[in-house]
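Incident review: delayed structure delivery

Summary: a single-chain prediction request sat in the queue longer than the usual turnaround. Root cause was a stuck worker, restarted by the on-call engineer. No data loss occurred. The affected request and its eventual output are reproduced below so the record is complete for anyone auditing the incident later.

Affected input:
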Amino acid sequence: TPDLFKYPLGLVDLFILNELEGKAYTGEKEYEAILDAMSAAYPNSVSVLTVGEDGVIYRDHRRQLECGIYKVPVMDTTAAGDTFCGYFLAGLSQGRSIEEILKNASMASAIAVSRKGASPSIPTFKEVNDFLGEWSKNQPHIPDIENSSFIQKTAVAQEENLLKKRKEGIL
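Output delivered after worker restart:
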């Protein structure tokens, strides 16, 4: 809304936008152009752009990190963004690395979309950690996220495990 621009947005430390919000706010259509516009307008701020099936892009004044999604059967996307934001902010408040925050928030969102409803779909920290551990064990190659600017996730084995747990009534 036009009223948003009346606020001193230059004082904002962190912008978390989804793709549609980024497009509306900057007038840009491409992910990189959205982030470029945010960086130009707010050089001291961090921008986090969630881009649906393409994952999330984090940019600060020093670096850009991208995190893909964990592919899961999608039941309901209602709480995906709120779950991501909650886990992202929780990770920041706990002093975790951005790479770990992106990984955890992405997994939390994947779990949330694999369930029906809003608040009932939001996973606990234990669930996220358990699923991340399970996913890591089933992957033939685990990306070195500390040294990679792109965290790619192909989670066929994780999908199978989620489906199995659903059938067994665990999820």
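Verification: The two ends are 39 Å apart (CA to CA).
Action items: add queue-age alerting; document worker restart procedure.
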